[in-house]
Amino acid sequence: MTDPHAAYLTAGHSIETAEESQFFGKPCFKIGGKAFVAFFQDAMVFKLTGKAHAQALALPGALLFDPSGKGRAMREWVQLPVQHAADWDIMAASACAYVKSLA
Q1: Distances (CA, A) of 100 to 69, 79, 91
Q2: Extended strands (E) in the chain
Q3: Most buried of 14, 17, 45, 90 (most Cβ within 10 A)?
Q4: How confident is the model over 39-75, as pLDDT tens digits?
Q5: Which pTM does this prediction carry?
């Protein structure tokens, strides 16, 4: 069984210049002061767009991130359960590239 928090840390630290921080009170990693991944309910959350966003949402158990739990999902943020931890490094790299492109 994969430890979700350890897998999150591994994925976040796979991005050399990423810094640990907080996002809506949740642990996250930021690049250039902007969050690109977070940890929520034993899942990893990624800021994605385009093909990477569609691929992530197509995975079983994936959903749009709704930190409030009140049906106000954040459209660019995809929450992936720990069953997809093997993909978290790749998704973190995609999320990092996307957030860097916004600067």
Answers
A1: 28, 20, 14
A2: 19-23, 26-31, 34-40, 43-47, 63-65, 74-81
A3: 45
A4: 999 999 999 999 999 999 999 999 999 988 899 999 9
A5: 0.94
CB 62 within 8 A of CB 80: yes
Scanning the structure block, which residue is given the tokens 């796979």? Answer: 14
Q: How long a stretch of residues is the chain?
A: 103
Instruction: Give me the residue label for tokens 């899942």.
Output: 43
**3-class secondary structure, 101:** helix
29: its two tokens: 């990693």
d(CA 75, CA 16): 27
Backbone angle region of 32, left / alpha / beta, with phi > 0 → left and psi within -120 to 50 → alpha: left
Contacts with 103 (C-beta within 8 Å, 6 or more apart), sequence order: 32, 34
How far is residue 26's CA from residue 56's CA, in Å, rounded to a whole number? 21
All structural domains of the chain, each given as residue ranges with its CATH number in brackets, are 6-101 (3.90.1150)
